[in-house]
Amino acid sequence: LGDSPQSINEDPYGSGWICEIELDDANGASGLLDADGYRAITDH
Question: 1-44: per-residue pLDDT in tens?
Fold first, then answer.
């Protein structure tokens, strides 16, 4: 990403990753939204 910052817009689910987060407890993610969930609450 440092060499090609446009990747974040061109391929956000591939080479455009900024970080990877690992949870100690996988159940902690149960209340998080996925991409479709965020679109549903942000699209107007």
Answer: 678 889 999 998 888 888 888 889 888 888 889 989 999 999 86
State which amino acid sits at residue 35.
Answer: A
Beta-sheet strands, E only, within the chain: none
Domain boundaries, given as residue ranges, for the chain? 7-42
**Buried (b) or exposed (e) across 15-36, using 16+ Cβ within 10 A?**
eeeeeeeeeeeeeeeeeeeeee
Q: Which two tokens stand for residue 37?
A: 């969930």
Q: Give just the sign of the alpha carbon dihedral 22, 4, 14, 16.
A: positive
Q: Can you tell me whether residue 1 is helix, strand or coil?
A: coil
How far is residue 44's CA from residue 40's CA, in Å, rounded to a whole number? Answer: 9
